[in-house]
Write a structure and sequence with these properties.
With 177 residues, this protein is an alpha/beta fold. 50% of the residues lie in helices and 15% in strands.
Length: 177
């Protein structure tokens, strides 16, 4: 069985990938790595062995794609010196909350509310975490970024719906298959 190690930006990302680890019956380990220095990213990956692929996961709401590509290419060059297996990058459109917004029913279940908004293209929302926060506030609920909440949402999500609405999730599936 293949195994994947992800470097993610925040606790919401980490929780979402923990949920996917369970749902997809894959070995997906994610750790939050603070900072964007290629040598720090390399240090994170080079001291962890036994994975089929190493994946750098970045959100577009933090950096433009050019910066992400530069960080990835520098880190990839450094990792080549350590003879690591495949090193990939996953760019999530804006933030992981865009994935959550693809399935409002999962959000309703986790937060015990009744949001009726259908988000046709969640990756087009510039600040999906703020959008989710506002939707829940209208329901008298509060979205607090946490590993547990993200994992619970991901555990309830319709992954087919997620795949049809979020191209970055399809990119993730392509990386792990």
């Amino acid at each position: 069985m293949s195994s994947f190690l992800l470097s993610v930006e925040g606790i919401s990302d980490q929780g979402a990938f923990e949920g996917l680890n369970t749902r997809l019956s894959q070995i997906i380990k994610s750790n939050q790595t603070n900072g964007n220095r290629p040598n720090k990213i390399c240090g994170y990956f080079k001291h962890r062995s036994g994975f089929s692929k190493y994946i750098l996961c970045k959100d577009l709401h933090t950096f433009p794609i050019e910066n992400i590509n530069k960080i990835y290419n520098e880190a990839k060059g450094m990792l080549d010196d350590y003879d690591k297996p495949i090193f990939e990058k996953l760019v999530i459109q804006n933030a992981i909350e865009a994935w959550f917004l693809s399935d409002i029913d999962a959000i309703n279940y986790v937060f015990n509310c009744n949001i009726t908004t259908n988000v046709a293209n969640p990756e087009s929302i510039e600040n999906p975490d703020d959008y989710l926060t506002n939707l829940l506030r209208k329901q008298g609920k509060e979205y607090i970024k946490s590993k547990e909440i993200s994992k619970r949402i991901m555990m309830e999500m319709d992954l087919g719906l997620l795949q049809s609405k979020c191209s970055s999730y399809q990119d993730f599936i392509n990386i792990i298959t």
